[in-house]
Predict the 3D structure of the following.
Amino acid sequence: MSDFRTDERLERDSDLLTKIGLCELRLMKDSRWPWLVLVPQRPDISEIFDLTPLDQTMLTFETTLVAEALKQVTGATKINTGALGNIVRQLHVHVIARSEGDPNWPGPVWGHGTAVPRAEADAKALSAKLLDALNP
Amino acid sequence: MSDFRTDERLERDSDLLTKIGLCELRLMKDSRWPWLVLVPQRPDISEIFDLTPLDQTMLTFETTLVAEALKQVTGATKINTGALGNIVRQLHVHVIARSEGDPNWPGPVWGHGTAVPRAEADAKALSAKLLDALNP
């Protein structure tokens, strides 16, 4: 993990929840959707195919783990996952809980409007529930 | 693969390119971006975590394979991958070649405007290049 440093914009836009095997798990500072981001702690990676095959498998495993926990905690209609990186090039995987009637449903969350910060108590409560679901 | 049937909307909006181990590989009928979709040939799956761990690993492997081929063929700035499924619930993974200045750059492709069909000769040429890159 030498030389890995979380991208500044990701750091600004999200809070670190925990570290899993490969990834930082971060909660986006946007109350419009329960929105997590996984950041593989590897330097200079921008595409999934830049990772080693083992790291790719780890990333899949961790994405699935987080998606299931998010579904369980939120009861969302659909989990959306995506790795875009058109703006922030450091590889990061979005895992978002979507429900009918949420902002921009059934369209994507990316690029839609402006983030609405979450109240600190709500962020704490959501984080605690997610960590519980991840470590049953 | 018994009981698997490609979703009707996916079938209408894309052409079958080939079948890889787990997935159908389809080319979206939209010339605005080189846009592929992988559809795991398993019935009644809507989330990645509904797949068995082995199928999840296969899907990752096939997504990486296709993403690398698409990058090689198009020279795109960034590959975008995503599994949303808010409209079509059958699990499918988008793999899209994005370049600076393309429609809606750096925003996402989903929900942006209306598909622009590709001329048949262009579709054939792109398909041939992609199949070559996938089977070197």
